[in-house]
Structures are given as C-alpha cells and as structure tokens.
Amino acid sequence: MVEAAQERVPATGQQGWEPRIVAFICNWCTYTGADLAGTSRLKYPPHVRVIKIPCTGRFDPLFMIKAFEKGADGVLVSGCHPGDCHYTAGNYNARRKFSVFRTLLGWTGVDLDRVWFSWISAAEGVKWVDTITRFTEVIRQKGPFVGYREMMDD
Amino acid sequence: MTERSRLIREIAARWLADGTVEAVVGWEQGTYRDKTAPVIVRTPEEAQRLVFNERCTNNLVAYLKREPLKSMAAVGIVAKGCDIKSLVGLIQESQVGREKVKILAVTCPGVKDARGTVPIKCQACEVNTPTLFDELVGEKIEARPDPQARSRSLAELEAMSPQERFRFWRKEFDKCIRCYACRQACPLCICTRCIAEKNQPQWIETSPHPRGNFAWNLIRAYHLAGRCVECEACEAACPVNIPLMLLNRTMADEIKHLFGYEAGKDPAVQPPLRTFQLDDDNSFIL
What we know:
The complex is a heterodimer. Chain A has one domain (about 20-150): Rossmann fold, CATH 3.40.50. Chain A is about 45% helix and about 15% strand. Chain A is built from six helices and four strands, in the order αβαβαβαβαα. Chain A has helices spanning about 1-10, 30-40, 60-70, 90-105, 125-140, 145-154, and strands spanning about 20-25, 50-55, 75-80, 115-120. In chain A, helix 2 packs across helix 5. Chain B has nine helices and six strands; from the N terminus they run αββββαβαβαααααα. Chain B is about 35% helix and about 10% strand. Chain B is of the alpha/beta class. Chain B has helices spanning about 5-15, 80-90, 120-125, 150-160, 160-175, 180-185, 210-225, 235, 245-260; strands spanning about 25-30, 35-40, 50, 75-80, 100-105, 135. In chain B, strands 1, 2, 3, 4, 5 and 6 form a six-stranded mixed beta sheet that branches.
C-alpha cells in the first residue's frame, strides 16, 4: 500500500509534484472522525498519510522532524478536543508541547503554514474532510518543502 | 590568594574533615595562569587546591549528574548564583536531593569567558548574591543587570524573515561535528541514555550531516525549553562556535510569554512542560 502510494505521488521537486502530508492522529477521536468520513462516503484529497497514535500525548516532536526528513511537505497533528481525552489529560499535556515546539520551529525558520494542529472529534468527519482539503490546498500553493529537501540531499 | 578562595578552602576542609560530605567539587588553578579547571577534592589537604576568581566560568553542577559524585551520599559544591539556578532545576526534577548537596555558594561580580570577555549571562546577572546555599562566601554584591544584554543578542535573529532564519541555522548547524560537547557540558541534559544514541529505531542520524545536525540541535533545544537556566555552558563548550544560546534564550522568552515561567528560580514550582492549565493557549489549534 505504502509503496503504491509513493509511486503515485512523485518525490518533491520533480515534475508532477503532488503535496505529501503526514497526519499524526489520535486513536480515539480524530482517527474515528476520519473513519466516519470514510463510512459516510465523504471525499477528500488523497495526499494525506495517516499515522495513528494512541493519544496526542504520545506525539513526540521527533515524529515531525522524521516526517520532514522523509519528504513530507506538511505535517498535521490532531486529537481529541480539550476535555475529551480518553486518558483524561493527554491532549492538555500535548498542547503545551505543541506550542513550545511550534515556536521553536518558527525560530529556526520552518514555515509554520506547513505545521498544523487541530482537535477533531469522532463525530467531526466533516471537519476532518474540511481540514485535509484546506491543508492540501495550502501546501499545493506553497509547493514542495524545498529547504528541508535540499538539506536531506546534500 | 583571595579572601573568597581562603574561605572556600576553610569551609570545604571542615566539611570533609567532619564527614559532612564525601567530596567537594570546585575549581583549581589551571595549567595556564588565566584558566581554572574543575577539581573533585576528597580530603581536607586536597581542599587547599580550591580557588575562586574571575576565570571560574565552568558550571560545576554538570558533575552532579555523573559519577563519581552521582552515587555519593553527600557532596559539596562550590557554586556561583548562576550555577545554583541549574541546581534548582535538578532539584525540581528530583535528579538531586536538596539534602544530598551542600552548597558552598560564592558571591560573584561576574566572570570572563575563554576570550576574556564578559559573558551575556554576567551582563544580565540577577544572582550575584546567591539565595539558596548552606554557606555563603564573599561580601554581598548588589545585582545590576543590564536589561538590554539579552535582547541585543537576539535582535539579529528577530529581524530575520523565516527564510533567512532557515538559511542562518542551516549554515550554523552545518558546522556541527556532533561531538555532543553541548550535551556533556549542560547541567540539565540528564538522560543516562540520550535520544541521539538510540538506534532501535534511530531517530537522529549520527553522522555529521545536515539532516542529523538539524534534528539533533532542534531536539536539544526542545528538551531544554522551560528548563534551560542560560548558564551558557553549551555555547562555551561548542568547538565550532554554534550560537546555541540564541535558541535557548528565545525559547526561555517564549516560555515566559506562554506560561509566565522562569527556570531556576523556585525549586518548589513545577516546570512548565510537566504540567498544564485548562486555559493554555489554544489559538494556533484548529
């Protein structure tokens, strides 16, 4: 599956480039929300690679760095709304990590439009579709993450 | 010999003689006249090697995190106000028990770095006279921090566009030879097994190549966010002069802005990334 997807979407910088988005989403809310979008037969761009994590509290900034290293043009992290965490407070802890790491990325010059965070509940299939659609559009306008790619290929 | 050195030797010798501590870590005269070197003394006689002067730049708290001091029941440390801030961090994170460490604090008018210039931490110093100690040596010094010292150093980075910043750090991190001196010198880099050494899976590439360099320096700064007390040990240790403190300082400012927290002040307060508030900033999340 993964290899097939990579063939369909050529690497950045090549002709016929398509956005490559990695989404780290929590098992309990956003993943179920994305599932709802699927079972509801809602359509959204196929450029997103979903990686399921047990909770946004599991998200480590290394995941994002790795995603960019492997050629992602944008990274989305999404989980349960505040107050809805399956583990009570995972997303509250995650929110602090997000805000700190996001500012760090800003200071190192990573385009913050390529790094999105969202809360999408299990009932918000439409919000998932909307978020992915908009994110894909933004990344399409921005083009491939050339700065990071050049750093990888040197 | 200065009065401070004399008193340090006297107190350290007393602690060692009566068994209050097993060892004292301090500074001794270095090989060159204008250098000092860290030293661990274990007897009252050895304590006569201790000195304090304006070249006592090293943050000796870094020695508490590793052997032989780590497994000792009680250790003494000669420390400036800035060093004690990093000790506060270790106490907050339960890495060192306050009862284990006897602090031989010394009032400090400011030190000089290897090039003989006054570091920014000294220009902005608020802790010339330490507040947390067991014994205090030297007359009290009123703090006269230069409020602009830190912001001057950050002005250039602040003025850059994101693209310029990316190019700037790309160029700086390209110099990195991955010696991890920044990590070794840091009193708060406390993991016994660093993420940079984990290879199952390998998160951070170990060769000195831009990809691993960017990941390493980013993660290093992130792991110190909300913890760094700006002792500047990392930058002083860096053999290729990467301005690591620029990231550490901006992150300290961001943490203060986001959570109203300043590291190294109060051992009783929870570090910001160990806790949360229900009304934390949510503005950047969709």
